[in-house]
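dumping this here before i forget
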Amino acid sequence: MLVSSSSFSYCFLLFSALLVATPRCYGVSALSSAVAAKAASSSATAAAAADVGGFRNPSKDAYNKVIKTVDAPKLKRGMDYVRLGNSDLIVSKVCMGTMTYGIQNTLEEGVALLDKAFDDYGINFLDTAEIYPVPPNGETQGDTDRCVCEFLKNRDRKEVILATKVAGRSPMLTYLPRGPDADPEEGADLTRIQILDSVDESLKRLGTDYIDLVREKYKIINC
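structure:
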């Protein structure tokens, strides 16, 4: 049976939302919590180790503390928002990935999925990357960002937490847009200049003047 890319993306979004809709103590850390409980029952030493590290208990972990719950039409209990690490960013527990937008999904389909995620499921956290869509190639590079840009045009930028990624080291990635002084034959190498150039180019494609979170796309294959 053939499944369209837009149907697959919608099903994935629905599945992710259903995970969040489960009772508070059974979030994405439920497995770790169960393993931690089993280990703790075996000995006092294991219990102490579980408290220090190795397992994350969602009922005790500060990073899982629900800051607020936002009403979401498609979720009976709404969408929980938590603090991102020790930053001041408050994000939905589900982050919306976008890596297919531009190849498996058209720009219009991508915008529609982002609208649904934001409006129906309360997802304010979006993830993209300078190499998207995947599989990466020079002809489509940056199309995912352009899709996110169209979505942001109809939103209050402050209501969206936007994350992107700088390409990790790969000698074959010579087509990524860099500054005017960059060597056109040089692959991605995570130098300071490349990172700054990457962010500048991402800002242009995304149509915004700031990005909330930048990190490294550490593993790149099929380039």
